[in-house]
Write a structure and sequence with these properties.
Distance between the termini: 66 Å
CATH topology: SH3 type barrels
CATH class: Mainly Beta
Strand content: 25-35%
Low-confidence stretches: 116-123
Strand order of the largest sheet: 4-3-2-1-5
Length: 123
């Protein structure tokens, strides 16, 4: 049983741009969005409160203006962070978003991330 049986550690699935659902404590909240940064201090996301998911879908589907927050949560508030993946026959939030709007949420979040400077120029 030499070192040849040891495997290199797998890369973390929680990389920038990955769609996740974060459950927070005190107060209890859930956020859906894309990771911007993850460190021992906390997690930065671009997204929305999970309770607003259906409202966002309607806004996007109708072509209305919307804004997504950029938030930082200190690690002591993060109770759980999970990849936005399907669970058996239940589609992921990203899959539901795509099915209802025809858009990929990760791409949409990346586009929104590149627009703030342009919107500030108009103000």
């Amino acid at each position: 049983m030499g070192s040849s049986s040891l495997k290199a550690p797998a890369a973390s699935p929680f990389q920038a741009g990955t769609m996740v659902v974060v459950t927070l404590a005190n107060p209890r909240e859930k956020f859906w969005g894309a990771i911007l940064a993850l460190s021992t201090e906390g997690v930065s996301l671009r997204g929305i409160e999970l309770a607003s998911f259906e409202d966002l879908v309607v806004l996007v589907k109708e072509g209305d203006a919307f804004s997504l927050g950029v938030v930082f949560f200190p690690m002591h508030r993060v109770e759980r962070m999970e990849l936005d993946l399907p669970d058996g026959s239940i589609p992921s939030l990203s899959q539901r978003f795509t099915a209802k709007t025809g858009l990929d949420p990760a791409s949409l979040l990346a586009q929104v991330a590149s627009k703030p400077a342009a919107s500030q120029e108009r103000a």
